[in-house]
Amino acid sequence: MPDSKLYFRTLKTPYYSMKKFVSIASALAFSSTIFAQADSSSVYFQKGLDEKAKGHMLIAVQHLEKAYNFNKKDKQVVSELAADYLNVRRYAQARDKFLELESLGDKSDSTYRQLTLLSFNTRKWDDAIKYALILKKQNVNEKLAWFIGKSYYEKEDLGNAIKYFGFAAKEDPANAEIPYSMARAYADMMNFKEAIPHFLKAIELKPDPRWIYETALIYYAMPDEQNSLKYMLLAGEKGYRKDNEYLQNLATAYVNAGKSQEAITMLKDILEKRPTDINIITTLAECYYDSKKYDEAIAYYDKLLQINANNAEAMYMIGMSFQKKGEKQKGQAICDKAIQMDPSLQSLKQEKQMPGGF
């Protein structure tokens, strides 16, 4: 009889061989799939490059997306797709692909530069700061302080914003956006005195009418009436839109600078277009009062009462105007009536003031 042990081993040998054969076949099939996918990725990648060369950017992107779907680990495909997303202004997708490129090991200056810019442009402020600092560490010659400062500004971290705007001014002293942003940071903290030099530097580099107008408003807030009027007029000369808001603010600047007649002329022109505008009527009344033209002041305060019979301040000022004219008894009686309507006006009577502290 044959050796049983040998016979047993002989019987099992085909089973193990078959199992090994199946494993090898599976591995070969898997490898074939991978190679097929790689081949397909290469085909679509080349199609993408061909369409790009013809200037067909959107078609090129479609082919590159197919190449990417076949092989998401190919750095060349990811890099080209990232660049092409950028070319067709699909910034959020471009940023995602540059992030993938970094995760695949691309730590180049170019990748970090794009991540900085794309994070900045898509308002990812923390990432913009992060990648700018990485790039700056890799390449000290990169001018990135502006992007870092602006990102901190948008995060409302004004201390760091001002710090990096200071660095940016040294990196790029001709960039008017830098002193303007510095000025805005100080203005946001109500530190108008510190804001002004930076506003002036910004409009020296770039006489933008809007910036000049903002400078006028900052001078108004300080207050510095003469410079407020100066830059308000300059904004108009440089092309700032002379809408009703601008004209009203200009009129106010004239009043504050002691030039009531100029204000009156302007306000009367505006009033023809906005005949029941309470703010304009009030300012006109105050201008006439300041100019000691009390009859005209009374006429405009009376217009306010016609619009709102319960306007106690307007009535009070009519009384004050009569007193200034020398009709004290009549004026006091009108003021007392106004105080009955609004008892808070009693304090104005005691201090001999008009509403608003005039």
Provide a descriptive summary of the structure in words.
The chain is built from 19 helices and no strands. It is mainly α. Among the domains are: 207-275, Serine Threonine Protein Phosphatase 5, Tetratricopeptide repeat; 279-358, Serine Threonine Protein Phosphatase 5, Tetratricopeptide repeat, CATH 1.25.40. It is elongated, with a radius of gyration of 38 Å. The N and C termini lie far apart (130 Å). 34% of the residues are buried. Mean pLDDT is 86; it is low at 1-13, 27-36 and 354-358.
The radius of gyration over CA amounts to: 38 Å
CATH architecture label of the domain at 279-358: Alpha Horseshoe
Oligomeric state of shown chains: single chain
Mean pLDDT: 86
Helical content, roughly? over 70%
Alpha-beta content class: mainly alpha
Uncertain residue ranges: 1-13, 27-36, 354-358
The total of beta strands comes to 0
State the end-to-end distance: 130 Å
**For this structure, what is the CATH homologous superfamily of the domain at 279-358?**
Tetratricopeptide repeat domain
Global shape:
elongated
